[in-house]
Amino acid sequence: MILFPNCKINLGLHILQKRADGFHDLETVFYPLLLQDALEIITAEENIFSSSGLDIPGDTEDNLCKKAWHLLKADFPQLPAIHMHLHKQIPIGAGLGGGSADGAFTLRLLNSKYNLDLSLEKLEAYAAILGSDCPFFIRNTACFASGRGELMEPLDLDLTAYSFLLVHPGIHVNTGWAFGQIIPGRPAVPLKDIDWQDVSSWKHRLTNDFEAPVFAAYPAIGGIKEKMYKNGAIYAAMSGSGSAVIGIFPKNKLPETGWETGCRVFEMI
Ligand SMILES: C[C@](O)(CO)[C@H](O)COP(=O)(O)OP(=O)(O)OC[C@H]1O[C@@H](n2ccc(N)nc2=O)[C@H](O)[C@@H]1O
Ligand SMILES: Nc1ncnc2c1ncn2[C@@H]1O[C@H](COP(=O)(O)OP(=O)(O)OP(=O)(O)O)[C@@H](O)[C@H]1O
Question: What domains can be seen in the chain, in order of their start residue?
Answer without folding.
Answer: 2-154 (3.30.230.10), 162-268 (3.30.70.890)
